[in-house]
Amino acid sequence: MITVAELADGVRADKRAVLARAITLVESRRPDHQALAQELLLAVTPGPDAPIATRVGITGVPGVGKSTTIEALGNHLISLGHKVAVLAVDPSSTRSGGSILGDKTRMGTLAVNPRAYIRPSPTSGTLGGVAKATRETMVLMEAAGFDVILVETVGVGQSEVTVANMVDTFTFLTLARTGDQLQGIKKGVLELADVVAVNKADGDHVVEARVAARELSSALRLIHPRGSLWRPPVLTQSAVEGTGIPEFWDAVLRHRSTLQEAGEFDRRRRQQQVDWTWTMVRDAILGRVEHSDGVRSVRFGVEASVQDGSLTPALAAQRILDAFDGR
Ligand code: GDP
């Protein structure tokens, strides 16, 4: 059995086999593994003077070019001397049993680069479980010296909000849409985005992409009024040609330094830690309620009563809470 101290040393030395074991440990749902994982995370948590990695979220519908962008961006960052970790949050992989994101074959040149590490989405459990594992993996990657962490997600349910809450800069990739097509973009994602990029601005689509970027920019001005600390830029890029990728990274750095200068960066990170704490409390309570003997014994009947209309949802919720016996 490898000890926690050995795991911590191996992670800090960026020994890939040890890193992989450490990540498997934080992803495990076994209580004894979870206890060890927390010891390990404490052991590798850096002091206050340690360099701070840049955490970037990347979202967009399937096919928009997330993996192509990550590959181009990752290679660009490595050429600048960075070490790049790619993680994915894809709760749908829980159902399909396999991760569609973070798939190494989709980022071929990055996957084989020793200064990169690509980890597919954990496939265990709920979005809460996936998010917890990803956040903890992020801590391990930073301890191993990765100074840029890219977290990829698709816009399913709450996953965008979850990822936005674990990164410093949240980016949204989209395609050239104008006029009515703009309506198709979820308003929520525009509210979360710190940087927006219209991808596939190449070949015959360059002009179209620029027009779309201008329209999106106007739409964003309504969300972020003049005087806001940061107004998200809308860029155009071609991930396959690599054009616009350095500018994309510059925008991320500008966002970071703007927040830092205003003291907002540290405040956000601290708040994220507190929010994460409460998210785990809520998830744990819900788990206890759902699995308690008392709730299990009434659950079927209460759900049936809600379905046939003989109980209102509010009364049903009360019944369930009354049945919760803490066990
Ligand atoms: P993801 O599902 O968002 O990860 O999208 P992918 O990165 O897998 O890209 C989906 C498809 O779009 C692939 O066939 C890519 O080659 C293509 N693609 C990605 N980026 C670009 C781009 O900038 N320009 C063009 N023309 N095609 C692209």
From TrEMBL:
Q: Which SUPFAM superfamilies match?
A: P-loop containing nucleoside triphosphate hydrolases
InterPro entries (UniProt xref): AAA+_ATPase, GTPase_ArgK, P-loop_NTPase
* Gene Ontology MF terms: GTP binding; GTPase activity
All copies of domain AAA+ ATPase, residue ranges: 52-228
Any one cellular-component term (Gene Ontology) = cytoplasm
Question: What domain of life does the native source organism fall in?
Answer: Bacteria
Q: Which family does it belong to?
A: Belongs to the SIMIBI class G3E GTPase family. ArgK/MeaB subfamily.
Q: Which PANTHER family match?
A: METHYLMALONIC ACIDURIA TYPE A PROTEIN, MITOCHONDRIAL, METHYLMALONYL-COA MUTASE
Q: What is this protein called?
A: Methylmalonyl-CoA mutase metallochaperone MeaB
Q: Which organism is it from?
A: Tsukamurella tyrosinosolvens
Lineage of the species this protein comes from:
Bacteria, Bacillati, Actinomycetota, Actinomycetes, Mycobacteriales
